[in-house]
Amino acid sequence: MPVAVQEQNPVETIKAALTKVSVTETNESFDLRSYSHFDATPSIGTEFRAYSPNGKPTLSIRDILGNTEREKALGRLVSERGVVFFRDAVISPDEQTKLVESLGRLGGKPSTSKLHVHPLTLGGSELGDEISMISNKYIFDNHFKRDDFTVLKRKFHAYLWHSDITFEPVPSDYASLQIRKLPKVGGDTLWASAYEAYDRLSPAYKSLLEGLTATHIGQGFIDIARKQNTTLREPRGAPENVGQHLSTVHPVIRTNPVTGWKGLFVNRGFTKKINELTQHESDNLLDFLFEHISANHDLQVRFRWEENNLAIWDNRSTFHSATEDLDDVERVGTRSVSLGEKPYLDPKSTGRREALLKAQSQ
């Protein structure tokens, strides 16, 4: 009597394929996955523990800083998994900037792309132009105070999802965040996978979207500058990132140059119109895509901050959102943002799932 073959769980198939094409299979001799870690969800997020429950050595960010081989391996893993968390990460704001700059450079970004200077960063900032202060009480600088943090003034959280600075002609590749002033509870951050968002679309939708472009505008920052009678900073880390309009055009589907995987590249924070459609058509399609990102929990990972935690993510292939649930309690962090390449779609690129299953079959 023949023995029945148990069909492998699709999630396990994807995870097994991911291991096969991870940094351990590149020319890097430094194996990140040999350290104590876990994948937070099947589609996004890998966390390196501060302790080891399985006998594997632990990995601190200090084991990586300044080592070219290890930083290159980290960049590859961040691009594959979307976001990587370190529980043991004693790191200064200056080291944050050097790390994300190195990740971008080792990942092949143009030499003209440096670190981003946010348009609302004031000159003479204590930590310099290339560090953004992330707070629930103000916007990038305490000159721009907020008054919407009470419970009845909170924004609908589905509207907070975004990718960093997509209003720039040359937006971000890698970014890092460490929360320096922690609340006792609350203030979590969520990330969502643009790879998985793409893979969850039907073939017909994928075909439609791959021929479209969208306009991204940083209207909220323009409005704040006008209200405060302040000029937006420029240039902002790349020769292309100039002007007071904070507006540019990007493909709706984008290829990540590190992985070669396609991802959805629109976000509610900055994407205003799909250019090839009428306004009504665009509004309806964007509403669907925004809900697609915010409403599907299987695309997402949620991170609870503790002291000396660090998150590093790839803005080309993720979205993120803070959880504004703190009322009068203050939460402050330092964020560094590297600039990458102009977004593009390579017609020869594939989705993440297709690439991983192909790799497993080889």
TrEMBL record:
Region (Disordered): 331-362
Keyword Transferase: no
GO CC field: cytoplasm
Domain spans labelled TauD/TfdA-like: 55-332
Pfam family, any one: TauD
Bias (Basic and acidic residues) ranges: 343-356
Domain of life of the native organism: Eukaryota
GO-annotated molecular function: 2-oxoglutarate-dependent dioxygenase activity; metal ion binding
Keyword annotations: Dioxygenase, Iron, Metal-binding, Oxidoreductase
Annotated InterPro entries: AtsK-like, TauD-like_sf, TauD/TfdA-like
Similarity annotation: Belongs to the TfdA dioxygenase family.
Protein name: Taurine dioxygenase
Organism: Kwoniella mangroviensis CBS 10435
